[in-house]
Write a structure and sequence with these properties.
The protein is mostly beta strands and 507 residues long. It starts with 15 loop residues before the first helix and ends with a strand.
Length: 507
């Protein structure tokens, strides 16, 4: 008697909710293997309820909001080029035909949104980690150079700051000009004459609008495409050396900058309507003796750290001071906003984490911390960076240490690379990556990754030694977003180079 062969897959008869309950325990790799079994299983694994938690686990939900990878166009070089250090250029580009749409795979259900985001984010992160990118560079300021030496009587042209968005990159130059480029081809769109601030954080771009803090205390906005001046905002008495810009709100701080250490003299924090160019609020110090030390801005909240050991939190929409936090540690150097928290960092080793709503101190720990051994107590932390998950503490001796918010020490550069001697200054931090330049070794510049398990890892040396005593100080402008980075390369130590801006496209 012949055996009967079932014609239907029993799994396909299960309710979708039950399928999700079963499949949610699988990894991304396992889900992909299951999807290869048959059409029914492919459709069962093609569910946002399965893929969004996997994206959240990898911290890839930002690719739905901050950068929409489902719509982000890939960079296509004008001529074939190798993909950075990772091999041929084709490996940089995502295999778009692997995403099922009605047009390219008739009869199959379209790939769900969060699976598409996972696939593309995995490819993008692999490009960063494995140094796969396309490169575009554009020269500037070659006049006055003889080989690698600058011999003109005119001041050397240097880049003070960089900012970008989409295919636009803007640079603030030492000769009081703004330059706007198209990063896809290196074409310079516009040169704007304006007394741009020398502060490295005084230039921002959002929603196609450039916001520039200026030497005369004003803030000017421009259209990134046309170069047209949009608004001029006046009120500060000193150079505007720090800006925050989220597309509709500008928060500005003015003062005097001493190298990379910011010294505030004008202790007013000003909030502006970026579209109308009007002043919304001025958050003032409580007295002339109380000076502003540091400012952070996140989700319409401003945090100001002051010399009286207080952190004041304001709502930029209502102007209300919603919390005043008093730290019991002296010499506060910075404050940092996170998800419902504000962090106070003090000169030396003390870190405190406060609940924004209640003002309660919910955590207190030392840097380097209880998990760290063989360190010099006198090698104090002098600057802190925060990426909403990890704390990066740079010490007096330029050692960068990595911590979780529970105070656990994860690693530092000197332990990760004991045979190397890095004297780093962090230039920009984004997610799990940061760019830092060496303060003594001819301006070497590096791209680093941050990992919860492996600590700090150097991905790539972006820039070699440069032939100038001021290389670590004046030539350190850098910028990056989720899909690209840009830095300035003036000239090599042993070869002649024309000053240029280099852009790496990872998507």
């Amino acid at each position: 008697m012949a055996l009967s062969v079932p014609t239907k897959d029993p799994f396909s008869n299960l309710p979708n909710e039950l399928k999700v309950l079963v499949l949610q325990h699988l990894s991304a790799e396992d889900l992909c293997h299951v999807a290869l079994c048959n059409r029914s299983w492919r459709e069962a694994t093609n569910d946002d309820a399965l893929w969004r938690p996997l994206c959240r686990e990898k911290r890839w939900e930002k690719f739905d909001a901050v950068v929409d990878l489902c719509k982000e166009p890939p960079f296509i070089p004008s001529s074939p080029q190798h993909g950075g250090d990772g091999g041929v250029g084709d490996s940089v580009t995502f295999a778009f035909d692997s995403v099922v749409t009605g047009s390219n795979w008739p009869g199959l259900v379209n790939t769900c949104r969060w699976k598409e985001i996972y696939m593309k984010a995995r490819h993008l992160e692999g490009n960063w980690k494995n140094n796969r990118y396309h490169e575009v560079s554009f020269e500037f300021g070659s006049a006055g150079y003889s080989g690698s030496m600058y011999e003109s009587s005119e001041p050397e042209l240097t880049v003070c700051s960089l900012a970008g968005e989409g295919n636009s990159l803007v640079g603030g130059f030492s000769n009081d000009t703004l330059h706007i480029w198209d990063t896809t081809c290196g074409t310079r769109r516009h040169i704007i004459k304006v007394g741009i601030s020398k502060g490295k954080k005084a230039l921002k771009m959002k929603n196609g609008i450039i916001a520039a803090g200026c030497m005369d205390g004003e803030i000017r906005t421009y259209c990134a495409q046309t170069g047209e001046q949009l608004q001029v905002m006046s009120g500060h008495r000193l150079e505007v050396f720090r800006l925050f810009f989220d597309g509709d709100t500008i928060v500005s701080i003015a003062g005097e900058s001493n190298m990379d250490r910011e010294v505030c003299v004008d202790s007013d924090i000003r909030v502006w309507n970026a579209i109308e160019g009007s002043s919304r609020f001025v958050f003032e110090s409580t007295s002339d003796d109380v000076k502003l030390v540091y400012v952070d801005y996140l989700d319409k909240t401003v945090a100001g750290a002051y010399s009286d050991r207080k952190i004041r939190l304001w709502d930029t929409q209502s102007g209300v001071c919603k919390q005043t936090i008093v730290s019991d540690a002296n010499d506060m150097i910075s404050c940092h906003l996170g998800d419902g928290i504000v962090i106070s960092a003090n000169w030396g080793h003390v870190m405190e984490i406060w609940n924004v709503e209640s003002g309660e101190c919910i955590r207190h720990f030392d840097v380097p911390g209880v998990d760290f051994e063989d360190y010099d107590r006198d090698d104090k932390s002098c600057s802190i960076e925060f990426n909403c998950e990890f704390l990066l503490a740079t010490s007096d001796s330029s050692n960068v240490r990595l911590f979780r918010l529970d105070g656990k020490f994860i690693g530092d550069i000197k332990k990760a690379y004991p045979s190397e001697y890095y004297y780093l200054c962090i230039r920009c931090v984004l997610g799990n990556k940061f760019i830092a330049s060496d303060e003594v070794a001819g301006g070497l510049m590096y791209l680093w990754s941050i990992d919860n398990l492996d600590g700090l890892q150097m991905i790539k040396r972006l820039r070699e030694c440069m032939y100038d005593d001021q290389a670590p100080v004046d030539y350190s402008a850098a910028w990056m977003n989720e899909t690209k980075l840009a830095f300035v390369y003036y000239f090599g130590l042993y070869d002649n180079k024309v000053p240029k801006i280099v852009v790496h496209h990872y998507w």
